[in-house]
Amino acid sequence: MTTFLPSEGGAALVVVANRLPVDRVPDSEPAADAAATAPEGAERSSTASGQPAAPPRAAQWRRSPGGLVTALEPVMQSEHGAWVGWAGQPDLELEPFDFDGIRLIPVTLSAEDVELYYEGFSNDTIWPLYHDVISPPRFSRPWWEAYVTVNRRFAEAAAGAVAWGGTVWVQDYQLQLVPELLRELRPDVTIGYFHHIPFPPYGLYSQLPWRRQVLAGLLGADVIGFQRVADANNFTMAVRRQLKLETKGNDISVPSSDGGTRFAHVHPFPIAIDTTSYSELVRRPEIIARAKEIREGLGNPRRIVLGVDRLDYTKGIRHRIKAYGELLAEGRIDVSETILVQVASPSRERVAAYMQLRDEIEMSVGRINGTFDSTGHSAIRYLHHSYPREEMAALYLAADVMLVTALRDGMNLVAKEYVAARADNRGVLVLSEFAGASDELTSALLINPHDIEGLKDTIVEALDMPPAEQARRMRAMRRRVFKNDINAWSSSFLDALTRSRERREAQAQRAALSVVDA
Ligand code: G6P
């Protein structure tokens, strides 16, 4: 077994995620748009012959949207934190660089790694399997081999970055083997893993040909966090059935390399959003003005219905559009009064199931608009783009009804963002009971997206809801969303890691004393 020595001045806290928390600013965009430049983030470029190519350029980066980095920023800055991840482009070799006080450690993925590890095993095996096999998962041995290789690369990068006795927090399904691989390299560190997507029921999980290896990979962590109680229970059940390990409450006894036993603590930590920044955003006069402008641009409809999703088959976009089309056909929605705005941000565009979904959605939107549009009004405004947070906040403010119709979703942060944005206590959230957010947002109008008639009735109920009832429901949801914000979420996970470290140290001390006694 190779043991890694920590690098001099290693970080006390290292986050490991498939992606770095920054996006590269395209060369076509002016440098002024970049939040910062990274002078040390120079590319190690070379020609095919191995000769150095053009002199290295300083890359420009801006922070990618997402609450995780916002939540971790203060603790990362005070603990000299580091973030290990992929820069999002194939074959990009970059030196580590600092950004907003955080050390970023890029992991290179070749074009083949992207195809086999990212598009293949992560997004065409694990993603569909863990989301109720809505799309059939594909099991490929070369994909699995690439997943093992790339997970090892991430584990080695983390092992080289973390200080002696430090903490490593691994994120999400692309990196399920990292906890065990890292523990082999660095037994001194405390390891956390958070799973952002659902963990499937045993009957589905057991289809995975590498089911035992993946469970063993995750069990390398001291704390394993899930979104919902059901996910944590599904995981524990899989461990009991497949590995025959003993579980007691939230703890799993795992045999350790020294012949003893260690504990892996399994717990739900429902992820949250940066509520304060949303409520601050929607109070800005320019955002309020932009919401008005959006409404005017849509022809001043009486009602705006909104959907915001990555273009993914788990989100139930087809079901939503079907229900909406039927409401128009039955005359229960009038195109001159109501419009559906569907933002579908491009995602995983080289995976076949995503290409097919895009074709299907665009065909139904085209059909519905062709049938119901008038010269002055559109039935559906379909936008295949991503937007900055400011524009999203304005859209949320403009929307009378928000539709979240996921067939399966770990949490769904859009639902929480909509609630955080509605400081005016107006608007109605229609929320799928198959999204993790429905555990907390019980005052939403909860739906089963497979029940198209039920979904249609609920959309009409939302459109007709009196303002007093909108306010009552919105206030209750806002209390929940503000109480468990992203800071509360990350602190509760990091506290669990601290408790786990203390427990491990106490266990080691007891073991040392018993040797002395003997
Ligand atoms: C989900 C996953 C994340 C992932 C994101 C975007 O939210 O839980 O791990 O980063 O989708 O997907 P992408 O494949 O573009 O990273």
Describe the structure.
With 518 residues, the protein is an alpha/beta fold. It is built from 16 helices and 19 strands. A 10-stranded mixed sheet has the order 6-7-5-1-8-9-10-13-12-11, sandwiched between helices. Strands 16-15-14-17-18-19 form a 6-stranded parallel sheet, with helices on both faces. The chain has a 3-stranded antiparallel sheet with strand order 2-4-3, with no helix packed on it. The structure holds 6-O-phosphono-alpha-D-glucopyranose. The site of 6-O-phosphono-alpha-D-glucopyranose has 6 residues, from loops.
Number of domains: 2
Low-confidence stretches: 31-41, 45-56
Bound molecules: 6-O-phosphono-alpha-D-glucopyranose
Find the CATH superfamily of the largest domain: Glycogen Phosphorylase B
Rounded Rg: 24 Å
- Largest sheet: number of strands, sense, barrel closure: 10 strands, mixed
Strand order of the largest sheet: 6-7-5-1-8-9-10-13-12-11
* Portion in strands: 15-25%
- Please give the number of β-strands: 19
In the CATH scheme, the class of the largest domain would be Alpha Beta
